[in-house]
Amino acid sequence: MVTGCGATSKNGSEQATKTKDASVNAKPTGPPTPSGGWSVAYADGFGAELGTSSNQDSTWRQLEDEDGFTNKNEIAVFRTKQAKTGAEGLELACTPLTRTINRGTQLNANYECGAVVSSHFRWRSDEGETWAFECVCKWPANTGEADPGWWTNGGYTEGENEYDFFEGDGWSNHDTEYDAFMPAIVQLGEQHKVDGFEKTLGFYPENGFHRYTTVLTPDGRHYTAAEYVDGTFKWSLSYTDFKRAWDDLRLSYALREYAGGFTSGSRDFVIRSVAAYEDKAHEGKDIEGGGIAPGTAVG
User: Fold this and answer.
1) In this predicted model, what pLDDT tens digit does every residue of 56-93 receive, in sequence order?
2) I want to staple 161 with a disulfide (CB 3.0 to 4.6 A). Which of 12, 46, 48, 154 is the partner?
3) Is residue 38 classed as helix, strand or coil in its secondary structure?
4) How far is Cα 61 from Cα 87, in angstroms, rounded to an integer?
5) What CATH code is assigned to 22-298?
6) What is the largest CA-CA distance in the chain?
7) Do residues 69 and 158 touch, judged by C-beta distance below 8 A?
């Protein structure tokens, strides 16, 4: 087991230990190894402070956006200060605002939250690659509004060529229990819906670190998106590669409309590591940037 990502406990969750020099596995956990093995297209164990100075992690851009995301039930804006690295990894925070921000035709914003977009890595499915996208994280507490996400998006418009590796659907059932989309190919309407996280997967995602791995395997223009949790296969769906666009990576802690919600303090979506893997036969194909982030070791 890689130092820095924690050992696996008896219930399958990642233990909360983290070293200063964070490490990421050299291959995804759970899926079969493709012919020739895996290559690391991008990896970040969040062992360095975000920023553009020497020795800082410049592979992400922190969002500063007064409008938030474009769904009409969004109730948060994004602030750079709400995305930072800490003892356990990348911390994306949500905090109630002291004043409500008018968002015009959409709901008013009552919270400021954190989100990051990859600034040195983009990928696309084009040459028949097999891809794996892995995230080790602990979701934020949910009181009916939480919407954490690990996803990818093409271009500068939200929802363009969007793949949601997971989206914590805490806002749709107005309960403290999470539903989720894992994964969702948004433009095609292809998705796997988790109805009740504890009922389906046997744990509450806010109670500990877990490993979420989405594998995209081609058969011509047709793909299978398979989901692994803590190294165990859970389900898959099929879709057609409808648009060969350059996609970035995104981590976000958004909130959506709910009559309740928290009114004080700050809650965190904590990400210990992320990685994008490509089958070695296509190593370097359809990649812009990438590599290993500062402060991160791969082993």
Assistant:
1) 999 999 999 888 898 889 999 999 999 999 999 999 99
2) 154
3) strand
4) 20
5) 2.60.120.200
6) 56
7) yes
